[in-house]
Write a structure and sequence with these properties.
The chain is an alpha/beta fold. It has helices at 30-38, 54-62, 77-87, 106-118, 183-189, 196-201, 206-210, 230-242, 244-248, and strands at 4-10, 24-25, 28-29, 46-51, 66-69, 93-96, 124-130, 144-147, 153-157, 173-182, 215-220. Strands 1, 4, 5, 6, 7, 8, 9, 10 and 11 form a nine-stranded mixed beta sheet that branches. Strands 2-3 form a two-stranded antiparallel ribbon.
């Protein structure tokens, strides 16, 4: 079977949260939590932190991570991942792991790799889970996805989809921003120009759908919270303080 490379894109200059990768949570940088969780994935043959900032690079190198320096001109984490993957010709599969999800489940990473390995028709795979609180689906900061009968994405949106024309008890799916690519599919993806729907929603995964590429979605029981703001980081720190082993032992 082809080898799998995990890449964690990390940039310093987040508009909403500058310096986020090294923000301390319980005296440990946010990015390090992500990296340590990924170390428990059994299906990754290598793991690289991809960054354009020497502060992030030095910190990650000091705790033992393999680091790749990337261009500061990238518009997205996917572009940053693709730069590294372009030189990683020995890997057939690339897993794009968000650097701001410190509770990412290593088993989900393994499932993404296994899905790509088991079905050659799948070029891109991602994940989603049902909102525990349906009211959260109304937030434009929470990305939603609807699926066909084969668990392929029909559409991604910041809006509530499908629109609730009448009460039905429909359980909305929250898209979790982790992606598994066949390397060739990733390199093709970043060659395409941003598409109209992608620009309208500010969701780059719509570029794949607009270019006729199916995106397979693994529906999981639970997701992992992202850290988008300092307030999110404080909430996570409190959560870890209440039950550290529950979240960090996987």
């Amino acid at each position: 079977m082809g080898k799998a490379l995990g890449i964690i894109p990390a940039r310093w200059g987040s508009t909403r949260f500058p310096g986020k990768p090294l923000y301390p949570i319980a005296d440990k940088p946010l990015l390090r939590y992500v990296w340590e969780r990924c170390q428990h994935a059994k299906k990754l043959d290598a793991l690289i932190v991809a960054t354009d900032d020497m502060r992030v690079a030095k910190a990650a190198f000091d705790w033992g991570a393999e680091v790749a320096a990337t261009s500061p001109k990238h518009r997205s984490g996917t572009d940053r991942v693709a730069e590294v993957a372009r030189h990683a010709k020995n890997f057939e599969f690339v897993i794009n792991i968000q650097g701001d999800e410190p509770l990412i489940d290593p088993r989900l990473i393994d499932n993404l790799v296994e899905t790509l390995q088991s079905d050659r028709k799948i070029d891109i795979v991602t994940a989603a889970h049902r909102f525990q609180n349906p009211a959260e689906a109304e937030s434009p900061h929470q990305n939603k996805v609807v699926l066909d009968r084969n668990n392929c994405a029909l559409y991604f949106s910041r809006s509530v989809i499908p629109y609730p024309a009448k009460p039905s008890g429909f359980r909305y799916l929250r898209h979790q921003g982790i992606y598994g690519f066949r390397r060739d599919a990733l390199l093709q993806f970043v060659k395409w120009k941003p598409s109209p729907l992608e620009q309208a929603e500010s969701l780059e995964q719509l570029r794949a759908l607009e270019n006729g590429v199916k995106v397979h979605v693994l529906v999981t029981r639970h997701g992992s919270p992202g850290v988008d703001t300092p307030a999110d980081a404080k909430a996570l720190e409190q959560r870890l303080a209440r039950a550290p082993q529950r979240f960090l032992s996987r």
